[in-house]
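Collaborator request, handled under Task 6.
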Amino acid sequence: MTENQYKINNRTVETVELERIEGHHYAEIVRIDRENGFIWIDYPGNPLNRELPAEITDNNISVQSILNKPLLPKLVKIEFYNGNPTFPLIREIYYAAAEEKTESESSTEIVKTVEEEEKTIRIKATRIILEADEEVIIKSGNAKTIYRAEDGKIVEEADDIESEAKLNYRLKGGSVLIN
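Structure tokens returned to the collaborator:
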């Protein structure tokens, strides 16, 4: 180790002449390092202009437990060890986050629940948008729905397809083909 480095929890930390950062901040997860047990993050105003390894401070959460979840996190709440901007500590992990809203839009609360025994994910929101450049596939067993951007087509495949309406059931199209 050099003069401007020290070790904390088997991690070498550089001491550089940077302004201390106090309080909580939010950071984007750039990548997850399974081997070394770090989550690499970047945050607005990062004075080093590069991703940094961050440590998880909750002993009940590990990188492996995060990788075993059905959804990977995208956002974390961090603070800095002794205000050192090169040593972020993860305080909270967010698996879903609402997009920023303008003042005229109502806020949307997104709730994610993982029930370990059932392996169920519930996302509750006023509106959910799944968007992909090529296609979105929703699949369960032998049934799937494919939304294709290239030709604007929706393809449904299943052993049986059932569709019901309590009031009117309308089919509209340039032409409607049935069998």
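The cover message to the collaborator said: "The longest strand covers residues 25-33. Residues 97-116 have pLDDT under 50 and may be disordered. Please let us know whether this matches your experimental observations."
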